[in-house]
Every structure is written in C-alpha cells, then in structure tokens.
Known about the structure:
By secondary structure, this protein is an alpha/beta fold. The chain is built from twelve helices and 13 strands. A hairpin with a 2-residue loop joins strand 6 (142-145) and strand 7 (148-150).
Amino acid sequence: MNTREMFKKAVAGGYAIPAFNFNTMEQMQAIVQAAVETKSPVIMQVSKGARNYANGTILRNLAKGAVEYAKELGCEKPEIVLHLDHGDSFELCKDCIDNGFSSVMIDGSSLPYEDNIALTKQVVDYAHQFDVTVEAELGVLAGVEDEVVAEESHYTKPEEVIDFATRTGCDSLAISIGTSHGAYKFKPEQCTRDPKTGKLVPPPLAFDVLHEIENKLPGFPIVLHGSSSVPQDEVDTINKFGGNLPDAVGIPEEQLREASKSAVCKINIDSDSRLAMTAAIRQYLAEHPDHFDPRQYLKPARENMKKMYIHKIVNVLGSDGKLG
Ligand SMILES: [Zn+2]
C-alpha cells in the first residue's frame, strides 16, 4: 500500500509510522515480527546504498516476502509500504515505481529551490499515475547516510512550505529541524556533557520551526529523517566487546515522542538497527570464540533488532495497535 491513508490516520491520531531501513533478510524478518506483534503499520525503506549492497530485485522480493510472512505470522491485513529512501534522480524514482515500490522519496534538498520544485514535480506527476506516493525534502540535514552527505544543516524555512507543497503536489515533506543522519549526529562542541555519565547531550530539536510549519500546512504529513536515538547501552556493548565508537550520540527519545504527537507522521530509523545488530554480534562472538556458523550470531542479532523495533513502536512512535 502507499502512505496516503496511513499518514492521514497518523496525523489525526497523534502518532508516527516507523520507517525502518533494511539491507538484509534478518532486518526484514525483525521488522515484520515487530510490526505483527505490536499490530503496527510499517514502512520498509530501501536506500540507494541498500540497492547497491543487496541488489534492487532481491530487496523488492524480500519486501514482497515480508507481506506474505506477516500473514503467515497471523496478521490478516498487514499494512506495509515499500519506500525508496533518498531517491536522487527522476530515473531512480521511475525505476522503483515501475518495479513495484508503493512510495518514493525524491530528495532535491541540495538543489536550488526552483530546481528542487521542478525535479519533485516531475517525480510526482509520474508517480501519481500509478498511485505511488511521493515524499519531498526542503531544508538540509547534516550528517552522513549512505551516499547522502552534508556538512552543515539548514533548517526548513516555514515561509517556503506552502509554495513548495502546492507547486510540487508532493504527499509528504521531510523537514530539517535539527535531526541529523548517522551515529555521529553532533560534534562534541555542539553538545553539553552530562556531568554524571560523561555522555554527550545533544542540542534540542527546533520545535518552534516545526510548529510554524504545521500552522502553514495544517494536517500535512511531515517526515523526520536522521532520527535514530543511538541507544547508549548498545554503544557501550559495542565498545565493551572490541568496538570503538566514542561520543556516538542521537536524538533523545522524549523529543521524538513529542514530535510524533504533532503533524510528524513518519520517523526514519536506520542507525539504531545497525547498532543493535552490531552490538549483539560483537557480544556473541566475543563470548563464543569457537562458533563460526553465521546463524549462531545472526539469531541474537535479529532478536536484538526486533526488541529495538518494538521499543520504538510502543514507547516512542505510538503506532502500536493502529492496524486497519
Ligand atoms: Zn534520510
């Protein structure tokens, strides 16, 4: 299914749909298990980097398998969107639309304003012929995500959103209010330090900008990228068992919970899944140096990701129990 009805209900209901990136079968299984157990709609998204890693055809068929798998797990009518994350050209979006994606993002945020509008409109005009929904982006997020890199962030300008949404016809809008891609969202100098734990405390999200955008576009679906919270227990596990991720820091979950209650109806989470997977694998291999069957360490990795997904759905986004 596409995101149209899903977002309408989420905005009205004051919750957000989880958008989890996936690259592997284990991630897909964990996402589906978590969504089924919590009765949550879910967006499974694929980045350009994921397509390069795993092959587009394989990921598409994994997503098809996800729907069947959800039914097999007892969910009569799963609500699963297959979404392209950060499409960077009309051709890439068209390829995904032609091959069964139900939603695409066209990210023209690095382009001049008028060029972003022209590219987004071109994708929207094509996508809507096939009832595929389109996410656009205004404003620039900092951080690194696959092939998306930006040094500095620029908040979305609220005075541009009506013009942009009207002229492009996009179905949802990713905005920049201080979230950031990756596991190193902020430099230490942008943060304060918790005197007790020594951990970095990131600067708060710009809720004033979010509320101004909501006032300009009442009820319009808003998307937050770069919204992993970088759970410190996972970071600690990674560092304890041979990793080296000093000062990895994310968006505090209370702020994401707060954002979910507003017009923010899709929250993207990628790094947290990578951390959960890596933490479990590092711990398992450190504790079982004689094991070498990938199933032995991928099983706890899958379990750990599933636990994280369920936590996000239930305690952060509030999308549990929201199926049809
Ligand atoms: Zn993103």
